[in-house]
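TOKENISED FOLD:
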Amino acid sequence: MKILSMDVSRRFCTAALSAAFLTLIPGVFFASAAHAATAKEIDVSVDVALERFDKEVKGAKEFLKSAKGVLVFPSVYKAGFVIGGEYGEGALRIGGKTVDYYNTIAGSWGLQIGGQKKTVILVFMQEEALKKFRAASGWKAGVDGSVALITVGAGEAIDTTNIKDPIVGFVFGQKGLMANLTLEGSKYTKLKK
């Protein structure tokens, strides 16, 4: 009889902990949304992210000059405990000037625990892709358009001659450019700042 009560207690504790985590996760993400950054804060963070991009990826500055637009999310926070989510705010720049502000939101399900922060840079290589993105009320990667993630090894330069995709993306973690990721399912929505 004691074994049964311990099993029930263990299940109850597991359920209670899971419920607590599930209630905390949205709070972690959307606390940053509640304390949304100002336009100036976003622009300063975007400048820092672009400087890092230029420093860590050879040929980045020249590559960005050929872009029709660049969407930069300096800090995308991800956390999860079975159910996870991501949130970040950024700016779309055309000709080096901010034209709009956006947020990105994504959810996930599966074996995951913990959190991380990353920087996401989307580069629009074709005018048509940029126009479609800007016209959408909520643009979703993998549905409204695809994003080709580019990985560049240490010391390598961006090979612009082989990039034919209309939208390319770069994801940086604390240790540099990250590989084996996907942006599919990430939703991008224009913000009023």
